[in-house]
Amino acid sequence: MHELSIVMSIVELATAQAASHDAVAIEEIELDIGCLSGIEMDSFDFAWQQAVKRTILEHAQRRVNRIAGKAFCLDCETEFAMAHLYDGCPVCGSHLCQVKSGKELRLRSLVLPD
Amino acid sequence: MCATCGCGPNSHEHDHSHDHSLQPGNGKKIVDVEQDILQENNLLAQRNRGFFEGRNILAINLVSSPGSGKTSLLERTLTDLKSELNFAVIEGDQQTTNDADRIHATGTKVTQINTGKGCHLDAHMVLHAVQGMKLLPDSVLFIENVGNLVCPAMFDLGEQERAVVISVTEGDDKPLKYPDMFHSSTLCIINKIDLLPYVKFDVAKAKEYARKVNPKLEIIELSCTTGEGMSQWYDWLKAKILQPV
Ligand SMILES: Nc1nc2c(ncn2[C@@H]2O[C@H](COP(=O)(O)OP(=O)(O)OP(=O)(O)O)[C@@H](O)[C@H]2O)c(=O)[nH]1
Ligand SMILES: [Mg+2]
Ligand SMILES: [Zn+2]
User: Fold this and answer.
1) CB under 6 Å to ligand 1: residues?
2) How far apart are CA B135 and CA B117, in angstroms?
3) Is residue A28 part of a domain?
4) A2-53 pLDDT tens trace
5) Which tens digit of pLDDT belongs to each residue from B193-212?
6) Per the structure, how many domains does chain A have?
7) Tell me: the pLDDT tens digits for A51-76?
8) Cβ separation B176–A86 shorter than 8 A
9) Residue B24: what pLDDT?
């Protein structure tokens, strides 16, 4: 359950941000979670419920942008949609690919009460 | 970055006159944070890496499912090579000191990190372990991670090499089931090949799957019990020490 550590890091980052803006609550939080980031969303939801209790995020509305996996084939230079890290290039079959997106794990923004 | 107003990646606040994706009501404040959630771990990992590189210490993060043979590999390696190389070991374990005791018995300096419920080591834990260790320059530091093929994948410890161990009793589709770990590793050790006659494990298939996830992955087959293949692993290790990154 590394999702729990991830949620705890989010709580830490958000708490620090809120404090630097003198906010006592967070109304909304927006996250980018890539489809190839290794986060299992069911585990993440479960970890979230546990870890935000009695924190500044307890009542925050959460928005998650799932970022689709994209890779670039180093052999034939095709850019393609990557659903799994073991997917090969649909054009030439090569596995020598560079992941372009889908690995994101980012706290994007917060909405704080005035 | 806010795509509409083009504001920079640094955390700051601003009043929006346009619609933001979050659509706040009047008087609310939007803070564009744009921070990597693993940022703190990654910064500490970089710090560890700098420390290791400055002293020419080869740090190797050993990862696997429970029981694939990480500690057995270390026991045998430390015993066979202790007259040639300087070693130190960090043992990550959820509860016990069993593995650390086994390393200690080989005469190697070992530090234990009990992670409790934590299912992986992180760079912060390694930083503190290293602070108490008086590592020698030009030595090899093995970090045995918690037995788990999922969680440790995401946490850079500052190691130079990540070696994933699988054993032939586990099924040859491990690389497809746990691609993140194979994607982030530099070496794959297929252990317990002495058991190949008794189990259904297709080595060629396992290698094919592993290279689908990571074409650059080096793969070594060996048995910690019989010693078969260990010399290849020792060659790999020595080559890594001879060419500091
Ligand atoms: N037959 C055979 N057994 C092995 C081999 N290597 C390890 N084992 C056995 O596998 C079991 C687990 O080995 P460990 O070295 O404790 O595995 P580990 O990866 O350190 O396990 P955790 O730390 O619990 O995750 C032990 O009973 C070992 O004796 C091998 O090459 N062949
Ligand atoms: Mg062990
Ligand atoms: Zn291609």
Assistant:
1) B 64, 66-72, 99, 147, 191-192, 194-195, 223-225
2) 28
3) yes
4) 899 999 999 999 999 999 999 999 999 999 999 999 999 999 999 999 999 9
5) 999 999 999 999 999 999 99
6) 1
7) 999 999 999 999 999 999 999 999 99
8) yes
9) 53
Indicate whether A79 belongs to any domain: no
CATH value at residue A33:
3.30.2320.50
Q: Which atom of ligand 1 is nearest to the CA of B165?
A: 19
**Torsion sign across C-alpha atoms B15, B38, B113, B133:** negative
- How remote is the C-alpha of B92 from its chain's centroid? 11
- Inside any domain, residue A83: no
pLDDT score of B94: 83
- A92 located within any domain: no
Task: Enumerate the domain spans of chain B.
Answer: 32-242
Ligand 1, atom 9, residue with closest C-alpha: B69
CATH of the domain spanning B32-242, picked from 3.90.1150.10, 3.40.50.300, 1.10.357.10, 3.40.50.720: 3.40.50.300
CA B167 distance to own-chain centroid: 17
Choose the mutation target among A3, A6, A9, A44 for the interface with B, i.e. most B CBs under 10 Å.
A9
Give B142 Cα–ligand 2 centroid separation in angstroms.
12
State which H helix or E strand residue A101 sits in.
strand A97-101
Low-confidence ranges of chain B (pLDDT < 50): 1-22, 244-245
In order, the DSSP letters of B224-241 are TTT-TTHHHHHHHHHHHH
What atom in ligand 1 is closest to the CA of residue B62? 19
A74 in reach of chain B (CB within 8 A): no
Nearest Cα to Cα of residue A12 among A111, A107, A114: A107
A7 touches chain B (CB under 8 A): no
Quote the domain boundaries for residue A45. Answer: 2-68+102-111
Task: Quote ipTM for the complex.
Answer: 0.90
